[in-house]
């Protein structure tokens, strides 16, 4: 029961945080599509399926028993703090993106954007993993992998648009940051 309560709280936050920041900074619940419909449709469809599966699981876990995975309770419990950290990362990214939601007015390189170019996607991946662990459900995990593959496919198109808008500044930024994970660089001798 504790895992279901944690899941319910996390899902409510997950559904409300993006809308809050979009309304706060753009006055809209959803930003314009910017011609990325072909990339967004699979991601949004799979996200809807994940959210629907989570709601069904919350109502009655036995309704999702057909896709249950036998996981140790400690591993399942790890899903809650993982999802919580992912939500915190999402909030951090939204706070630094600010008024750039919906349209890139400035190149944001502060906060989590200092280390990765797509921190919201990284946070979302952590959230999906957290959901998968909390529910111990292969359907949630598989739909999450599908949604993340759509995001991974969309990222180069977004970066191309940012490169066209910000030119060398974006090129330099991309050279020093990782796409989804911080770039690991070897340091030479000081001097």
Question: What can you see in these coordinates?
Answer:
The chain is mainly α and 191 residues long. 67% of the residues lie in helices and 0% in strands. It has six helices and no strands. The radius of gyration is 18 Å and the shape is elongated.
Number of separate strands: 0
Question: How many alpha or pi helices?
Answer: 6
Q: In sequence order, what are the helices and strands, one letter per element?
A: HHHHHH
Helical content (DSSP H or I, runs of 4+): 55-70%
**Gross morphology:** elongated
Unreliable parts: none
N-to-C CA distance: 57 Å
Radius of gyration: 18 Å
Q: Kindly state the mean pLDDT as a whole number?
A: 88
Structural category: mainly alpha
Could you tell me the strand content as a percent range?
under 5%
Summarize the biggest pleated sheet.
none
Task: Describe the structure using short key phrases.
single chain; 191 residues; mainly alpha; 6 helices; elongated
List the helices and strands and how they pair.
Blueprint: H1 2-26, H2 37-59, H3 73-97, H4 119-135, H5 138-166, H6 168-176
Helix pairs in contact: 1-2, 1-3, 2-5, 3-4, 4-5, 5-6
